[in-house]
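A protein record pairs a chain with a discrete description of its three-dimensional fold. The following entry can be read in just this way.
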Amino acid sequence: MSMSVLVLGAGMVGVSVALHLARRGRDVVLVDRQQPGEGASFGNGGLIQREAVFPHAFPRQAREILRIAGNRAIDARYHLRALPGFASPLLQYWWHSEPARYERAAAAHAALIETCLDEHLALARNTPAMALLRPIGWMRLYGDTAGMEAALRQAERARAEHGVNFVALDRQGLATAEPHLMVGRAGAIHWTDPLSVSDPQALVLEYAARFAEEGGRFVIGDAATLERAGAGWRVMTAEGAMEAAEVVIALGASATMVTRKLGYAPPLFGKRGYHRHFGLRGNAVLHRPILDTPSGFLLAPMRAGVRLTTGAEFAAPDAPPTPVQLDQAEPVARGLLPLGDRVEATPWMGTRPCMPDMLPVIGPLPGQDGAWCAFGHAHQGLTLGPTTGRMLAEVMTGEAPFIPPEPYRAERFL
């Protein structure tokens, strides 16, 4: 039993952890209540974001705070009754976004991001997963010259400090790159490094297939049943009780459901998001994902159609879906691109797991021998799954971790 591990959560992070552990000789059982990739990893922009070296800080300009407080924006909305539950983590998020503290968080965040392409390709190379990874990058569109110039200054810093590559496009360059856009914009930044994933869940399933090839097992089970079993751990599954010497909690926004019972309750909070796919009319084509800054939504070409995604919704975990942002975004998106019929009758909804210091929790669970954390990746779970999997597996098996793990330790929230 000393070489056995339970990994709870079969999103991109959990599958990546399980695969890396299996490749290091561990006897791994991956447990989830759904099939791999059906949680937050299913619904996202499908980007491996090598450019995302600067995490999104809490807004500190009064004008921006007031815009969000108006609760009419496509990129951020909230349920009024849910706000008391978000007060503490959002206040901490604001505190960690103070410029000096933000720079320290950004350095630790960038250390993870800089590895993301190599770590994904290490898992995908010579497998069918490679066909899902498109080296086309993505573009962010700007509605005015001032916004474009400010973004270019940040982009130049990302290039100088972190080796990020991009191309600046003026109005005509953007029209040439995406000829079926129906609205002009002042320009765009084409981030050329990121990989665009044509089907995020299919990518998770491909990595899960590699895990199975390494001898790993996936079972349907209930992470909430996790308990001590002697010196190890036990969880109930569809195949009965499963026991192992160690456990990894990779449950995304649901992680504290388990960790709280084990004495660890970090200020993890969830941001809900929605997506829906559309066809395109006539011979229209969208060549790469585009984020329209004036509108606050992303359009991405996927296997299922053009995916329209929303920003963040702050709501109670058990609140029913309220896709108001998606309903707001659709007519604007139709004015930007010749969208056709909806592909799904009901939009998808999922929850992104966020930490107020903008860094994931990766490492030992405090006070619990043999228990480990891998959650809190916010918008970058798809991007950072393989990086997290490798780093945590190296720590668990006594290897020298390829990234210093200290900034991500769980103890920072004790």
Q: What stands out?
A: DSSP finds eleven helices and 22 strands in the chain.
